[in-house]
M23ase beta-sheet core domain-containing protein
Amino acid sequence: MIWRGLWALALPFASSVMAEGLVLGSPVQCTLGEDCYIQQYMDRDPGEGHSDYHCKALSYDGHKGTDFALPTREAMDAGVNVVAAADGRVRGFRDGMDDTGYTPDTAAAIEGKECGNGVVLVHPDGWETQYCHLKKGSIAIRNDQQVKRGDVLGQIGQSGRAQFPHLHLSVRQGGKPVDPFDPDGFVTCNSPGDSTLWERPPLYQPGGLIDVGISDALPEYASVKAGSVAADTLPPTAPALVIYGFSFGTRKDDVLSLEITGPEGEVVKKSSVMDRPRAQGFRAVGKRLRRGSTWPEGTYQGTATLKRGDKIINSMTTQITIE
């Protein structure tokens, strides 16, 4: 799979006034915008609605942390480390919960253990960081252990109340939740993030593409999330060529365009308008093979582009070979 440059908008780091107290490094050993992304921020709306620190909708009601997500279960299985965001002491941890995520069938077993496998670190001046949904069997620390920033705590998983593989990072001072992206507590929509706990705060990414792939049939959503759909090669007799785009944080009226081109030019192209906001979702479009014919051999490129108004939020490409 080929990842293309518009995610570069999320790779530089913003300059911001550092809040006094805890200073955080990255809690994950992955690169935002390349092999992981922030799915949801802390909810800053005190009422029944939800709003992130940019006064946008990349959160949900009552969310008290930041979710660092992996694109697929396949990436989770490969292993991505969770590390201490600051020097501290291990106050407690849990391991042994399966990475089944939250479903009606698992709800009873998860009740009271929504964090799943996790670690709590304590820091000076009443600060705490909590790391949730770690992979079963990956916890790499012990109680009362002193850790340094960057020390491995475990790996990203899908244990507890998690609907996708991610690290949920909570930050608290004196037991009260603190948004590391705007810890002074004063959200200003016109100039968000005027304070920060991050040593190098990642720029805000207001939704985007998680994955793109080409297959020979319309994929199941569960398979898209697992990362088990996309092909590297297909035979000339493949029954269809289908491109899918897996997205997050889309808003009503966002436009997702999908296109496949091959040795003889355009194979299929279609744009879909989002009918409502979605935390995650996917769209697909394809073309069936004509009876008695074959696909021309060679390289085929798939492109997914997400637009919000006149602005391209994200674009990703992938390639397959027909031989």
Notes: DSSP finds three helices and 20 strands in the chain. Residues 73-78 form the longest helix (6 residues).
